[in-house]
Design goal:
CATH architecture of the largest domain: 3-Layer(aba) Sandwich
Number of helices: 13
Strand content: 15-25%
CATH class of the largest domain: Alpha Beta
Number of strands: 15
CATH superfamily of the largest domain: P-loop containing nucleotide triphosphate hydrolases
Order of helices and strands: EHEEHEHEEHHEHEEHEHEHHEHHEEHE
Shape: elongated
Structural class: alpha/beta
CATH topology of the largest domain: Rossmann fold
């Protein structure tokens, strides 16, 4: 698919422009230089065309010596820029042209791709006089936009549509096939390295420094004819610690934004991959994150990363075999009995392809429909074995059941006293449904309603 990248110096407003173009608040925006570190993609559709838009870290041609994260960010950026079809250079009206802008333009010319010049922070017609100086950059006529006020965003989209190659014409069938997969977990469990191995590309920054990932980093992969949108999220610390970084108030502010984006991403995704580090067994925070996933009724795969440590003898807690750790996980995650557990190594790539296959399977299970006749046949068989249990002396009578939703699957039972059904009977009915039909990796909703009056 045609790929467009936003390029410019730190704080030019690239992330704000990215959010304006994709029409949602995805990238974190602050006035803190260097907020964006990773490569962040989103599919953009406009009229009959579609393309991938990438938000990038601000280019710093002189990386401070010893700043490991900036060095890695710059290294990944240079590699990712080679995949771009069109650059949007984002200038800053407030600073005007700087020597940094000139050097960045000279640097990206080496890729031999077209450069579209956009000047941000042109908030009103009076600011357009500032555009004249940007002709000096030698990349054509500048377009003045305001990401904050959405000024001229539609004009920019029209310009991009004219640049997109005909082969990338919007295909509605492809969009409906998209599967959104969020990668969640505590800091430093190896989410980004796992995603790099999953997409077979060293695309995202990997570091031992907690908080390396800030934005929700997005990328697209085609698998078995379907598009998977992977969403790599920031590590989630315990709620009481979020935003509290000793001596670093700015870092704390960014962490709060990151945590909010993680929760929004979870709400928006189809399936969540919960990545855990076996060296620390299963922590209370792992369980909290799993609880968030359950509460949102999302598909789930528990990914035990860094399993190469078991072979190296670094798991000294006694749960150093697949069988032992599986038993531990099943005990700890007893509220997610439907969640498959996969042991992978981001270092060696072991079992990583299995995750892709499971994603496809779970997406199918979340969308399956069971006929009403089959469901009621099961209901009759179930009630013959065990009558409904009430929370008091009322006799509950379940008349019939029908499937009322998918993604997640929802089954509605009609009864005379729906509010009186004991929770244990709800669980019993769910188990009966799971025994009859395969709902691997997905929660199902059991709803009770009053029977219709004739």
């Amino acid at each position: 698919m045609f790929k467009v990248a936003l390029i410019g110096k730190p704080n030019a407003g690239k992330s704000s422009l990215f959010n304006a173009l994709i029409k949602k608040r995805k990238a974190i925006t602050t006035n803190i230089p260097g907020t964006t570190r990773d490569w962040n993609e989103e599919a953009v559709s406009f009229d009959d065309f579609e393309f991938i838009l990438a938000d990038t870290a601000g280019i710093e041609l002189k990386v401070p010596e010893g700043d490991t994260l900036k060095e890695k960010s710059h290294e990944k950026l240079e590699k990712n820029l080679k995949t771009v079809d069109l650059f949007i250079f984002v200038g800053d009206r407030e600073t005007g042209i700087t020597g940094e802008d000139t050097k960045i333009i000279r640097n990206i010319r080496k890729y031999g791709k077209e450069i579209l010049l956009v000047v941000n922070k042109i908030d009103n017609p009076r600011n357009e006089a500032n555009l004249a100086e940007f002709y000096k950059l030698g990349v054509g006529e500048p377009l003045g936009v305001s990401a904050e006020h959405k000024r001229n965003i539609s004009i920019l989209l029209e310009l991009l549509a004219n640049k997109v190659e005909p082969c990338t014409r919007f295909n509605l069938e492809n969009i409906t096939e998209e599967i959104k997969v969020a990668i969640l977990g505590r800091p430093n469990v190896g989410k980004s390295s796992f995603l790099n191995k999953l997409i077979k590309e060293e695309k995202f920054i990997v570091s031992d420094i907690p908080g390396t990932t800030r934005d929700v980093n997005s990328t697209y992969v085609e698998h078995e004819g379907r598009i998977i949108n992977f969403l790599d999220t920031a590590g989630l610390r315990r709620r009481g610690k979020i935003g509290k970084v000793p001596g670093k108030s700015r870092e704390g502010l960014i962490e709060k934004f990151s945590a909010q984006r993680v929760k929004e991403t979870l709400t928006d995704c189809d399936i969540a991959l919960l990545v855990i580090d076996p060296k620390e067994r299963i922590t209370a925070q792992d369980l909290h994150i799993a609880g968030y996933i359950k509460d949102e009724y999302k598909g789930i795969i528990v990914v035990v990363n860094k399993w190469d440590l078991a072979k190296e003898g670094e798991l000294t807690h006694g749960f150093d075999t697949v069988e032992r750790f599986s038993r531990l996980a099943q005990h700890k995650f007893d509220f997610l009995p439907y969640a498959p557990i996969v042991f992978v190594s981001s270092l060696t790539g072991k079992n990583v392809p299995k995750v892709l296959d499971l994603i496809m399977e779970i997406k199918e299970r979340r969308g399956q429909k069971i006929s009403t006749s089959e469901l009621n046949k099961l209901l009759m068989e179930t009630m013959t074995k065990k009558m409904p249990v009430s929370i008091d002396k009322h006799q509950v009578n379940v008349k019939y059941v029908t499937q009322t939703g998918i993604n997640p699957p929802e089954f509605t039972f009609f009864a005379n006293y729906p509010e009186k059904v004991h929770f244990s009977y709800r669980r019993f009915l769910e188990n009966r449904i799971r025994e009859k039909w395969d709902f691997t990796g997905t929660p199902i909703k059991i709803v009770f309603k009053a029977k219709s009056k004739q």
